């Protein structure tokens, strides 16, 4: 998995698994936050991701299936970090 950036476009993580390109948005919140990390999966964020993904696909030449996922990270006061991978967090017709 890699972080990808080109000009104003950025994808937190791009990884291939089982022939599927996973574009992963990473969101971190402190434990006890009023909004969970997965609340970041908004329509506005999805539009920004699709613009960046379209640019990435043009540059990389990827022609296979694409899936948008969310990695929700919760930082606890004792230093622990809890991770949850939410697959297909942003529905698309890729």
From TrEMBL:
GO molecular function terms listed in the Swiss-Prot or TrEMBL record: nucleic acid binding
InterPro entries associated with the record: Restrct_endonuc-II-like (IPR011335), tRNA_endonuc-like_dom_sf (IPR011856), UPF0102_YraN-like (IPR003509)
Coiled coil: none
Protein name: Protein containing Uncharacterized protein family UPF0102 domain protein
Organismal lineage: unclassified sequences, metagenomes, organismal metagenomes
